[in-house]
Amino acid sequence: MLDLDIQEPAVFGGIGSVSTKNIFEKDGKLFIGEAAGLQDMLWGFGMRYAIVSGYLAAQSIIGNKSFTRLAQRRFGLKLKAGVVNRFVWEMLSRSSYSLTLGIMKREKDPFRSLYSFHNFNLLQKLVYPLALRYVRNHYPKLSV
Ligand SMILES: Cc1cc2nc3c(=O)[nH]c(=O)nc-3n(C[C@H](O)[C@H](O)[C@H](O)COP(=O)(O)OP(=O)(O)OC[C@H]3O[C@@H](n4cnc5c(N)ncnc54)[C@H](O)[C@@H]3O)c2cc1C
């Protein structure tokens, strides 16, 4: 709306920065949030992951620990679970959303299954190779 005098504009953003081959450190620099490819492939959680990875990066500096190791431990399995969840979501139709919510509603502790499906459970481990092939074919620009 305003005629700003932008000097040397540079493209720096994009969409869907999601990865499972995350680069957390390069040339002595730490990468957090979307710059490290941290987003859940189904649910997003981009803000949460950005804040948590920023915290871990700070902890790694304060405690002289490997940020890559801290970040992998925190996000590695969750990101893989996201790949499977995305695959399952796209295999079932959108109408299955209410079905899923219905099943959750009947559960005594819905947080338990939500936690399980966010942390690469056994079922997800079995489906992963198939999900990976699907995601690589359908989202060739993602580094998964
Ligand atoms: C439309 C939309 C809706 C979304 N909804 C949700 C949601 O509901 N919930 C959720 O959790 N997430 C959501 N997200 C995703 C979430 O916003 C991002 O994943 C999150 O903000 C990533 O944080 P970040 O710090 O990694 O990157 P960013 O928030 O992108 O921050 C990077 C910053 O670095 C600056 N920058 C880049 N290059 C340079 C440079 N060379 N020099 C100086 N500064 C630079 C940019 O200007 C920017 O301010 C949404 C995203 C979009 C686009």
UniProtKB/TrEMBL annotation:
Organism field: candidate division CPR3 bacterium 4484_211
Protein name: FAD-dependent oxidoreductase 2 FAD binding domain-containing protein
